[in-house]
Amino acid sequence: MAHSPTSESTFLAMATKHQAPSLAASTYTIHAPLDDLPLGLPPSVPLPDTFTVHSEGIFHGLPDWSSPEYKDKTAIVAGANGISGAYMLRVMADHPEIWKTVYSISRRPPQEALPANFHSLTLDLFDTDGAGVGKALRALGVERIDYAFFYAFMPTQASDKRTLFKEDEELANINGKLLDNFLEGLLAAGLRPTRVLLQTGCKGYGQHYGPIITPVVEDDRSRARKFFEANFYYSQEDVLWKFSKKHDVQWVESRPSFIIGLVKDNNLNLLAPLLLYAAITKHMGGTELPFPGDRRSWDKLMDMSSARHNALFQQWQILAPQAANQAFHTADGSIFSWHRFWPWLGETFGLKTAPPAADDDPTVNWQSYEMYRDAAIDYPHRAVCKYTFLMADWVQEPEVREAWKDMADKYKLDTTLMKQDYMWSIADFAITIWWNLQLNLDKARKLGYFGTVDSFESIEETVQLAVDMAIIPSFANTIT
Fold it and tell me: Which residues does the UniProt record annotate as the domain PRISE-like Rossmann-fold (predicted)?
């Protein structure tokens, strides 16, 4: 089908279903002195001479946890319904010898069945202060927490539809408060974990503004913090570091790239909109699968972070003695490009694909958007990205919505993701930016983590999961 041009781009539109509160005071945007940032610290314990590793399915080089010191742990996971929190719970459920008792916190009740040793708490960490969180934990009967994982995130209601993260200061206030309430709630309940894991990401390097130096190393964060204004990752880092220093609690920070995985009713999905785009196109009788971006975006190199591997990696980050008080890139150790992925996606759904046309092709209606501020440290310009259409616009076209509904009715699919507009904008961003995003993993390897997964094998498993979860039709019904 033809894709209509956008008169006013809905690129990276925020979901309108959730109105996040706004804070007047910049309580959580005051950063620690740059000279005091706990970055690049040497490991606090001697490293072993040898490491034992194993495989779990497509995931290889994983640590060995057979030692008694890693048994019968108790953990709490905040943000348990999101893609990262949900996968961490899945990994914990698969390793009951490590995780004897697991508590989870989320704004909504759990969406997946949990083992008997898992206990959930439905709680809004924004609207509940530390005393309230502590009271709820005591009411749940929580008496011990060895390790805490924090994945919770609350978006703003964007005033400008062209960016996911333009309201940097408001995001910093809101998400700094989420973490602060959680940590203070643990203390209020008389709980002091050995280590707290915070998941952040690559926006702390400014990759959502434009090109950044690659491969990125963890200590590049200190350069970025000198250059950029408020960023909610910086606010969360400050909250965690202050808590850690004051209460003698170890910390670890995990920084994934674009995440491959699938949970229902979650906006932070990259693969789900791509699979739905192909499935709906096929259902509408299409024979081709157009790529929205230009040749530069087609050829860029990226690291992907498979959600299950992230959780396995983070299990090492929280348990390994040498990982204490460190920040780690958390990625597959594989390389991804749209040039390699897009033909595979088309072939999987029986659709033809082709590389993007040349920039000067007069038959193509190229459009563009400019980033809302100057790009990163080594590229002092406003980055401009080109596209022929945006999937966030395409999915709102009446015939597309009708086809999605018809496909769901015909194949009895789950329609929860029809409410999630935000994920289409994430896909648009990941596709149309033209700069590389490659994360250096040497730090983790030097400290003894050797886990890896082929990103394309992870994608294939996630496609099957999408079928099993009735998000897309089974291939037997759709692929000819």
Answer: 192-362
* Residue 443: C-alpha distances to residues 91, 237, 258, 439, 447 (Å): 23, 19, 20, 11, 6
The encoded tokens of residue 224 equal 């970025």
Decide if 104 contacts 76 (C-beta within 8 A): yes
Note whether 147 and 139 are within 8 A (CB): no
Range list of H helices, 287-421: 295-299, 307-319, 338-348, 391-394, 398-411
Q: What share of the chain is helix, strand, coil (3-state, %, to 5)?
A: 35, 15, 50
Contacts with 202 (C-beta within 8 Å, 6 or more apart), sequence order? 208, 216, 255, 256, 257, 437, 439
Per-residue pLDDT tens over the stretch 446-469: 999 999 999 999 999 999 999 999
| pLDDT tens digits for range 235-275 | 899 999 999 999 999 999 999 999 999 998 777 789 999 99
Across-strand partners of 384? 370
Pair 89, 112: CB distance under 8 Å: yes
Nearest to 105 by CA among 74, 133, 72, 143: 133
8 inside domain: no
Query: Is the per-residue pLDDT at 158 higher than 60?
Result: no
d(CA 153, CA 307): 16
Which of 280, 315, 330 is the endpoint of a domain?
Answer: 330
Q: How many CA atoms lie within 13 A of 320 on its CB side?
A: 27
pLDDT in tens, 46-83: 888 899 999 999 999 999 999 999 999 999 999 999 99
Helix (H, G, I), strand (E, B) or coil at 60: strand
140 and 87 within one domain: yes
Domain encompassing residue 365:
271-304+335-436+454-478
Are residues 300 and 312 part of one domain? no
State the pLDDT at residue 7.
34
